[in-house]
Design brief:
The complex is a heterotrimer of chains A (406), B (197) and C (291). With 406 residues, chain A is mainly α. Chain A has a single domain, classed as Formate dehydrogenase/DMSO reductase domain (Formate dehydrogenase/DMSO reductase fold, Up-down Bundle). Chain A is 72% helix and 0% strand. Chain B has one domain. Chain B is 28% helix and 5% strand. In chain B, a hairpin with a 5-residue loop joins strand 1 and strand 2. Chain C has nine helices and twelve strands. Chain C has a four-stranded mixed β-sheet. In chain C, strands 1-8 form a two-stranded parallel ribbon. A two-stranded antiparallel sheet of chain C has the order 3-4. The chains are: A mainly alpha (406), B mainly alpha (197), C alpha+beta (291). At the A-C interface, helix 2 and helix 7 of A face helix 2, helix 5, helix 6 and strand 7 of C.
Chain lengths: 406, 197, 291
């Protein structure tokens, strides 16, 4: 039975048009590039990156933070779907969860490539390792990320496997798990925010507004990716996704973006008006310090993109127009990517705790490793979609021979 | 306190200095430029009053005991510019009010004397300094002014005031700093490292 | 490449990495544990193994000591800001004593050169000053190293318990257990933790063979290290290398629980400050004005 499911899935995955194979080929190439760059990194040490004692975290951890937000985004769909039993979204929740699974895989990979001793990664996992729980927030993060991954993975595979057998999923299993995944999604992002928030040494992060801000921005960036995927699915498969579902998600994103901008504004006000020496980090981000301006263009790009997206999504006419909707999605994706990635990590560490300014910007090798990690995530997502779509459509069951939709 | 106790401490001291290379080098510019080599020929008793262990005073080579020359000389108490000997000594230590014999004992040149006239040996010179610099002497005895070597929980050895400060010109002279750290270089440093090897 | 191989004991080769994680799991059954957990005889055995590895790597006998904390002793440090001339003698004495990597360069002490008119303001500090002579007029200097906090933010955040505070107050790192996540570096308010970004470049001739397993024994690539108050010296009663090296006697060290110690005298009689007091890290490192 299981075997048939796996074989069928494999068959599905191996069938596809030219575009599909081009996409897979591209991802595989990037993975190869990333892997090679990573082997270089293992050989030479993190010396090959631009990180140094002054700025000890960089591009990898920035991407990790952003992707935790993406992973948490599934919840934005789960809440209305299950709590309010809102049908149009309910059908697509499974895609949100697939996204969460792939995002978590990327998160864990980004942490993995960042650590100096990957051969000791197992130190994190009891009983062989030693997890400093509950003292270390990183221990919490390891825990919640893995739990969140397991929950989503279980739900998704269960639903698909049951559908493959022509049965409805077991409510008693799925509903509690899905409901559990709501607080879990909030907690992975909260814990990740606390990871930074708890460090008194870094005033830029040491602000209690950080966790709410993380959630608000996550509720924008995650759905932004999903909106693309849903439109794509609608185009290339028989999958029916109603306009209302897309519009509703866009509306929710507008509210989340408003909250995000508001919280940002509140933080910027506090920093500038109180004008303590903690202002230094915010200044480094938005105006630069003594000619050190690496982040400034990025910071303002993010602000503009977020504002643009907010306007496009809050006005019903632009929200319902396919072109402006997609521009908004792109703007959000890029805006939040900057804001929750480099613009969060780097100003937290620059100037360093002793006032030294070392301007970090990633090396080519870092970019290649990151590209590899992203490709792994996209590949996982693509392959899972390839199976999930026909299953959800009822085209792929044990009764009918597997038939690829594209 | 006898020399028996001293030997191991001296050994440890020199070991410590060998390990912390640069100690001696950095020290030298601070001392009298005129000359400074511990007089090894004739060890000075290193145990002084208050049971404070000190290293030998930093005499210029061949200058001590002073009586070698001064014994047969007539004492001239007149304040004057020295032209025959010691002309390399430039007094920059309240020089308006002070002169050689305010500190060096005229009767017995191998000794110093306090304001009270009490003779003291060179390894008790801190008593002389402490007449004016009382708070410094207090801190020095507590181990907080100046340098101590030895054990934090055991025998300590004090450096005399004169080991660091030239008594004739006590203010520290600026010294060249050790090399600055290298500024961090992103990424490519490992290539340089290969060349280095 | 030959020499590189000879020197680098802990270099992660490609193959080693590939089997690394799996082998790591297997190895747990026969032993790698946090050094913290090892019983005394097992610890000695582990240290003997290290000594053998170092002997091969550096071609000379390296002693890896395991002196424990002394009862009734808590170390503290005092540094006289009115005397420091910024000569960096301490920095280099520390590097030699503690077997830091020379290239890439790791230094546990950073000396901030600051304009007197600014006061203690690290945001305008210069760590790279190189005039002909120090002190420069109008400047003062603040050497900064691990403050051995009583409430250390760095040990709290370590996800694998690879760093902790010893009973005598020294914050140490287990170089065999650290995974190199650098969370502690983000948490430290004093920039006191340093990472081995590459394979440490330590010439065998430069190796100080008198080491401690929690202190100055040579480190592998990819782990964090820091000042340990020269644990290999101070647990044997000696002063830290920086204290002995300082040409102006600005550095004081001792047992804060001993009322007759130098550090106690400083705290009781001088104007004392600690860095970033508001963060409640409770440093065991005091800056004072001796004059």
């Amino acid at each position: 039975m299981y075997l048939r499911f796996f074989v069928g899935s494999a068959k599905l995955v191996l069938k596809g048009g030219r575009l599909y194979w081009a996409w897979i080929g591209l991802l595989l190439t990037l993975i190869a590039v990333g892997l090679h760059a990573y082997i270089e990194q293992v050989d030479h040490g993190l010396l090959i990156t631009a990180m140094r004692d002054q700025v000890s975290w960089g591009f990898y951890i920035g991407n990790f933070t952003f992707l935790v937000g993406v992973a948490a985004a599934a919840v934005v769909l789960v809440i209305p779907a299950y709590v309010y039993d809102w049908k149009p979204i309910r059908e697509i929740v499974v895609f949100g969860e697939l996204l969460a699974v792939s995002a978590i895989i990327m998160c864990l990979l980004f942490v993995f490539v960042d650590i100096g001793r990957p051969d000791r990664f197992w130190h994190l996992f009891p009983p062989f390792g030693q997890l400093n729980f509950p003292r270390s927030l990183l221990a919490w993060d390891v825990l919640v990320l893995n739990l969140y991954f397991l929950i989503n993975f279980t739900v998704v595979t269960h639903i698909m496997y049951r559908a493959f057998n022509g049965k409805h999923y077991r409510k008693r299993l799925v509903i509690p798990l899905v409901l559990l995944s709501i607080p879990m999604a909030v907690s992975i992002h909260t814990v990740t925010a606390f990871l930074y928030n708890g460090l008194a040494a870094r005033p830029f992060w040491n602000s209690s507004i950080l966790a709410p801000q993380f959630l608000a921005s996550a509720f924008c960036s995650g759905p932004a990716i999903l909106l693309f995927v849903l439109q794509l699915l609608r185009k290339v498969t028989n999958f029916e996704i109603r306009d209302e579902a897309i519009w509703k998600i866009a509306e929710l994103m507008a509210y989340a973006m408003f909250l995000n901008l508001f919280l940002h504004g509140a933080e910027v006000f506090k920093e500038y008006y109180s004008d303590t020496h903690h202002l230094l980090f915010t200044r480094y981000l938005y105006v630069g310090i003594e000619g050190h301006r690496t982040l400034v263009p990025f910071a303002w790009t993010a602000v503009c993109l977020n504002l643009l997206a907010f306007l496009l999504f809050v006005i019903p006419r632009t929200r319902k127009n396919v072109v402006t909707l997609n521009i908004g999605c792109l703007a959000i994706y890029a805006g939040v990517y900057i804001e929750k990635g480099m613009a969060l990590i780097i100003p937290g560490l620059t100037p360093d705790t002793l006032g030294e300014i070392y301007e970090y910007s990633p090396t080519l090798n870092e970019l290649m490793v990151a590209a590899g990690v992203f490709s792994v995530g996209f590949l996982v997502f693509t392959l899972m979609l390839k199976v999930a779509v026909p299953v959800t459509l009822g085209e792929f069951t044990h009764k009918l021979p597997a038939k690829a939709p594209v | 306190m006898t020399g028996r106790h001293l030997l191991p401490i001296a050994a440890i001291l020199s070991l410590g200095q060998a390990l912390t290379a640069g100690t001696l080098k950095a020290e030298q510019p601070l001392e009298d430029t005129a000359a400074k080599k511990p007089a090894t020929a004739k060890p000075v008793p290193a145990v002084a009053g208050d049971e404070i262990e000190v290293p030998p005073p930093p005499f210029s080579e061949g200058i001590y005991p002073c009586s070698d020359c001064h014994e047969d000389m007539e004492v001239n108490r007149k304040r004057r510019k020295l032209t025959e000997e010691h002309e390399n000594i430039v007094l920059k230590h309240d020089e308006k009010n002070r002169w050689c014999l305010d500190c060096h004992d005229a009767e017995d040149r191998d000794y110093l004397h306090l304001a009270s006239g009490k003779k003291i040996s060179f390894d008790e010179s801190y008593l002389l300094c402490g007449q004016c610099h009382g708070t410094k002497l207090r801190d020095w005895k507590a181990g907080v002014h100046g340098r101590r070597t030895g054990y934090w929980n055991g025998k300590k050895k004090y450096l005399l005031c004169a080991n660091c400060h030239n008594p004739h010109s006590p203010r520290f002279k600026p010294i060249p700093p050790k090399p600055a750290p290298r500024r961090p270089v992103p990424g490519l440093q490992w290539k340089r490292k290969r060349e280095y090897r | 490449m030959e020499t590189e191989k000879g020197i680098s004991m802990n270099r992660i080769t490609r193959r080693k990495f590939l089997v690394g994680t799996a082998a790591g799991m297997l190895m747990t059954s026969c032993g790698p544990k946090r050094l913290y957990e090892l019983a005394r005889p097992d610890l000695r055995e582990a240290l003997d193994r290290m000594e053998k590895e170092y002997a091969v790597k550096y071609g000379k006998a390296v002693k890896v000591g395991s002196e424990g904390p002394i009862k009734g002793v808590k170390f503290a440090y005092a540094l006289d800001l009115s005397r420091c001339i910024g000569c960096r003698t301490c920095v280099h004495a520390c590097v030699h004593e503690n077997n830091q990597s020379r290239d890439p360069e790791i230094q546990w002490i950073r000396v901030a050169g600051i304009d007197k008119e600014r006061g203690v303001d690290l945001t305008h500090a210069d760590y790279y000053y190189h005039p002909d002579k120090v002190p420069e007029p109008g400047k003062f200097y603040v050497p900064i190293q691990c403050q051995q906090c009583d409430n250390p933010p760095c040990t709290k955040v370590c996800p694998v318990k690879a760093t902790w505070k010893e009973p005598d107050g020294i914050v140490v790192v287990d170089y065999e257990w650290c995974i190199g996540c650098r969370y502690c570096m983000a948490a430290c308010p004093y920039g006191a933790r340093h990472f081995n970004w590459g394979e440490p470049g330590l010439d065998p001739a430069d190796v100080n063979p008198d080491t401690h397993y929690l202190g100055n024994r040579p480190r592998p690539k990819g782990v964090v290290e820091k000042c340990t108050f020269c644990i290999q010296r101070t647990r044997k009663g000696r002063y830290p290398a920086c204290v002995e090296a300082c040409p102006v006697g600005a550095r004081k060290f001792g047992n804060i629980l001993d009322p007759d110690s130098e550090v106690r005298y400083v705290i009781e009689n001088k104007r004392v400050l600690v860095l970033k007091e508001e963060l409640n890290t409770i440093p065991s490192f005091f800056y004072f004005y001796g004059v």
